[in-house]
Amino acid sequence: MKPRTFRKTRIATSLSVVLSASTMMPAFAADEVVADENIEVLKVTGIRGSLIKSMDLKRSSNGVVDAINAEDIGKFPDSNLAESLQRITGVSIDRQNGEGSRVSVRGFGADQNLVMLNGRQMPVTTGSRSFDFANIASEAISAVEVEKTSQAKNSTGGIGATINVLTHRPLSSPGLKASFGVKAVDDTSTDEGSITPELSGIYSNTFADGKFGISISASYQERESGNQQAQVGTGWRSFPGIVDQDWGGSNAEWGGVPKDDNQINRPGEGDVYSVPQTTVYRFEEQQRARTNGQLVLQYEPIDSLRATLDYTYMQNDIDTQSHDVSAWFNFVPTQESTWSDGPVSSPLVYSEIYPDGGADLSMAAGDYGTRDESGSIGFNLEWDATDNLFLSLDYHSSEAERSPNNKNGSSSNLSTAAFIRTSAATDFTGDVPVLAVGGGNQVRPEDMRVTGSVFGNARNKSEIEQLQINGTYIFEEAGSIDFGIAATDVNNHSQSVNVQRNDWGGVGAEGDFDPAWFPAGSVQDKFDGSQGDFSDYQGSASIDPQDVIFLWDFEAVRARAAELYGSTAVGDCGNGFCPSTDYASDTDRFTQEESQSAYIQYNYEGDIGDMPFDVHVGVRYEQTDVESKSAVTAYDQATWIAETEIALKSTAADSRVFQTQTGEYDYFLPSFNFNIEVVEDVMLRAAYSETIGRPDYTSIQGGTTVGTLANRGGGSGSTGNPSLLPLESENIDFSAEWYYDNASYVSVGYFRKDVTNFIDNNAINSDIYNIPDPSNGVYVQEAIAAGATTAIEQRQWIYDNYGATDPNVTINPDNGNIEITGNPGDPSVNFVLTSPTNSSESSVIDGWEFAVQHFFGESGFGLQANYTLVNAGDDYDNTNLGRPDSVSRAADAPQNVLTNISDTANIVAMYEDYGFSARLAWNWRDEFLNSTGNDTGANPTYTEEYSQLDFNIGYDIAAVEGLTVFFEGLNITNENTRTHGRSYTEVLNYTQTGARYSLGARYTF
């Protein structure tokens, strides 16, 4: 087989280098290095052994590389790969329901980091390019390599880094090896779950004098978890200070704040301010069952030829149940609020009074499930054609699919409401927003009526076929050349269909449901974060915090509602209370991305004086074609069905719009890496490269989709752009590394990335369908002139005056609500559409990475610490609302800012000796700008500073060789996450999960 090469240093290199770096491409072959009798062979396992292998791989690499290695077969440092990766300098992670899911590197989000499995690009089903690490178990993983500098031979797509996940290969570790593990997991975030099991095993063996090898691994994990959320779930609406609710003037907008004495410290005309659309308390329970398996067959009939056939399978079933209680703000004139100082003014307390009562207190529930399933079959052939020529071929065909896995669909939300609300107020001064509802704590089960519902089915399928042919030719005394070609074909197919009932004003009557189906729960005691006490409030709304929620029986209420209420929206069950599988009737998108590449790279190793060095220079060519076909629904009618809700409808027999759009691009990408050992054990590195980061798959889908429910401020939607170009980055790296002991080092690095073609998801105002808007139409203006100031008054006035003469003004017989459909002459419904485009601006991201790893002699104690400092140029201007021009004001200037940029730090303390091992790990990430737009327009989202403390403890049972018992804990201090808008008080989401503990045993032989 192709010999592996490691840089000649002045001290012996441990055998762990040879074992851990089997996937690294050499500078050139050197059989004599492997055979050198002076090599000191060390057999070190466990935590220290893992870190030695990772350190040696870093040291012997061609560029700036970090790695994590398994401590033993079947024993990765963390049970979740993302949790392990966050220990690496410059790596931070996104969590979903308390578990690591996606990774960012050096400030670049998950979509701009290429994740590969054994050097192969893998399919994803989320619309992004980021791999979900929650889908893969760690027990079969042997190592993860994070390459931060690029080489011509690296696949493209990773501006932040290229992450290669390596699984076990039997011929790389000859002989019989096996490991079996069992865990009991207690997730404290769940209120209803119990202790759940995890089982894993891996078996590896070689036969026929090491010519044939087989490896089988499998794992099964169940997990029950939950979370508690406090949200302004539909976002904040932002305005210039001049905007008000004086519809007789020229500055009124829906959501504007009156200029009256009920506003304490009202924003000035030169300020900007925001108002909340809702306040929601949401409680989720989730059950997950994850199954992984891999079979690897290897055959080496002669020393120069090795064939590998592998199959990998992953399945992740997630079922979710949710309950929430919420109050929508209707932006009535009777507002009483207290405001913070400008220039970004936010409500400390926002309140509305409903003098006539009858506003809704909503309590919704959901019960839905999805299945992520993927399979990959691959074949690899490595051939040492001559003493100087080494060739490899790798092919894989992989597919992944996310599909509904619940009779209620992949998403469902059924809403009930009690129409008893006399006021609503929220105190935003604490971590957790505090909602107070007039009459809310006196609500009875008998008050509840069914309102609207959405049962959705979505399925996404991704297929990848990839062929890579690589080679190395070694010149005698003149270095080597790496070369290769590759072809990658990615097909993504997404389909969705919703069954949506828009009866948000309620159907049926009070008492339609058995009160026993509505057991009461509490709200306020579920949150640990700080809460306001309305001490800043001077209004007349109730300030009694909402503490009653009905955790009602979803299936009982759904079934009874299906018996009682008709619906024009019909699912597979024949009524409106179930999902549909008629995917051909709604959104259907198919995208094909075909890429071809070729590269050549020259490698040379030598000495400058007594300083060993190596240099790698190359160029890669990438050519990509994109074709997107889409069928999306278009709408031609809008009906004002409740105070704030406007339902969109298509009256055409076939309302879908069909499109085919294309895009293409090609690039030459040079790279240069230089490494030199200037003094003993001190490495200096310098690198330059040009890289690209492709847009996510959702952005290159064609067609425009909008939500079927708008409000008086308009609707929202998105449109794709298959002609998007990838991000382009010119990268410079410098690094200094001092390996002062066989398990210790310190390093410092500087990186700079000049990035162009940033993809902006701009929010634009559009009247795309030219649908008459009844909530802002001629009749509404007449009602305002007649003295009707609230939506309730306006709707009643319109019905009283036009209900008998205009067929577009009616009473819905199913729920008794007034429904008003737009007429010609009404202004068009405005849609805020997010549309991805390439920015003409460029940005510079630069930063420093500091890392140290130290073991205190033979004491067993060790320490890892790292810090990454990232600078991304201009900050987001929170006073810039991103509004288009109008009669009274010029358009706001576009903002060229970067998202997901933040400093990160890690500290890991460890001990290992006498069969006992322990590790305590602290991870921190500073606040960062998460996004610059949402459904309410160009409004920012900031993710606040977060830190987490984890530990694991293990003990080897001396009486049974190979048996280890262990205890693990994640997030043991019960940290929570929080996001906010233009100011801290503009909370968007506060999520509370909890600690997770595992007790288990592992037997290895």
Seen as an oligomer or otherwise, the chain set is single chain
Mean pLDDT: 89
Specify the overall morphology.
Answer: globular
Helix share bin: under 10%
* Number of helices, counting only DSSP H or I runs of 4 residues or more: 7
Sketch the major β-sheet: 27 strands, antiparallel
Rg, please? 31 Å
> How many DSSP-defined strands?
53
Question: Which spans have pLDDT < 50 for at least 5 consecutive residues?
Answer: 2-43
In what range is the share of β-strand residues?
Answer: over 45%
| Backbone structural class | mainly beta
- What is the terminal separation in angstroms? 27 Å
Helices and strands, with pairings:
Layout: H1 15-20, H2 31-35, H3 46-60, E1 65-69, H4 81-85, E2 91-96, E3 99-105, E4 114-117, E5 120-121, E6 141-147, E7 162-167, E8 177-187, E9 196-207, E10 212-231, E11 236-240, E12 263-264, E13 272-276, E14 278-302, E15 305-328, E16 337-339, E17 344-345, E18 347-353, E19 359-384, E20 389-404, E21 411-421, E22 423-427, E23 434-437, E24 449-474, E25 480-501, E26 520-522, E27 548-550, H5 554-564, E28 587-608, E29 611-633, E30 637-640, E31 645-649, E32 656-679, E33 682-693, E34 704-706, E35 709-711, E36 715-719, E37 727-741, E38 744-756, E39 759-766, H6 778-785, H7 791-802, E40 809-811, E41 818-821, E42 831-838, E43 843-855, E44 861-871, E45 904-913, E46 916-925, E47 928-931, E48 941-943, E49 946-956, E50 963-970, E51 976-980, E52 987-992, E53 996-1004
Helix pairs in contact: 6-7
Gist of the model:
This protein has 1005 residues and is mainly β. 6% of the residues lie in helices and 51% in strands.
